[in-house]
Amino acid sequence: MPFVRTELVVLCVAQGELQVLLSRRAEEPHAGKLGLPGGVLRIDEDATLEGAAQRVARERLGRELPNLHQLCAVGGAERDPRAPWALSVVYRSLVQPELAVTPGKRVQALEWRAVGGLADHGPLAFDHGELIDKAVEATRAQIEALDYPPGWVQEPFTLPELQAFSAAVLGRELDKVTFRRRVEATGQVEALQGEMRSGGAHRPAQLYRFAGC
Amino acid sequence: MPFVRTELVVLCVAQGELQVLLSRRAEEPHAGKLGLPGGVLRIDEDATLEGAAQRVARERLGRELPNLHQLCAVGGAERDPRAPWALSVVYRSLVQPELAVTPGKRVQALEWRAVGGLADHGPLAFDHGELIDKAVEATRAQIEALDYPPGWVQEPFTLPELQAFSAAVLGRELDKVTFRRRVEATGQVEALQGEMRSGGAHRPAQLYRFAGC
DNA sequence: TCAAAAGTGTTTGGGTTACACCCATGG
DNA sequence: CCATGGGTGTAACCCAAACACTTTTGA
Known about the structure:
By secondary structure, chain A is an alpha+beta fold. Chain A has four helices and ten strands. Helices cover 25% and strands 30% of the residues of chain A. Chain A binds a DNA duplex through helix 4.
């Protein structure tokens, strides 16, 4: 039977850009390179695949992950020199930028890196570059469809804030009018009557929260 | 390490309906029930996950499958009583209705079943019902986007034929004008000058083939 | 008073839908 | 000639994009 692992693609929006959580690998193979946090499946501890991913998150990042979606499985005989056959099940998660992650065992350091221009910092370990691309694509499709993962933006929020987050994920500007109309048409947000956010030298913004909370 | 298998969701259009290839299980667990064809990953024979799926297809169905797409991976401690932990990587494929499948080892019989009303024939083995639903959903999204798998329809074909196949996959009628315009706009089909299909008591239809063949 | 950002109304254009109509063939 | 299905033109409609404009605040 093959050597089975779980890899995590953890994304967030910070500094107006989509970022991915990477770790500097301490051990071979690919020691010194940046790679996705991951870990071996433990059939004595994990009840399900997603449970395994959450355990790996606890061990490596110090906490569980919200909005965990399975991305794909990759595997082959030549994938990992530590085993004759290696299989990885990859999960993605979109988290709040304020997520506190604490490096865990066998992780030298955790770093947020903007997904644009990742190639500038040298090659990533294994095929992790392609996995990140796939995760970004799936996440963008989700946000494009206004399918907001619960708990991603802290409530209450304003529509311009939601628009800015969405634009950061998508990597392109969004039209204000179109965005407002599309979001309001979905019916998933409701205005908080009388509550505003007065942030600067401009008109305060209406606060919203997701309906059904 | 877990027990790793590959399962195949093979779909085709026949009798104007989307059908799935199922096998009557000869052995426990779930003996006698209908289930997806599948097989165990062989790390000594298979170089990749997709290679494993193709080997399973050769052994169980007597041929390789075109348009093979990975659907998901499912796994857990309670998944299969034959092992303490079982993991399945699921693939889907859309094939021509004329595909000849010959039952292989450990498969009593292969049957095409319409995906509508599958529940009427008793429960399926494992979670194969849910896997079929996911495969149908993914296939419908692909056809909805006019992303036709190469070799799915035999060329040459007429646009009404392509429309009928698409409608069968999607499970709903399609507007003739809209369908023609959308297909022609993609530029992936080209008319065969002067070639027509005269099938009945009506005007013959223009024959097409996919561009870039 | 002004700059800046929130929020609204209007127009434009692309693409889908619906409908009417013509075309070509077999019976 | 007529029924049948292939193929085309036109108008209505929906939605997103672009633009102009008003509103409200802090400086």
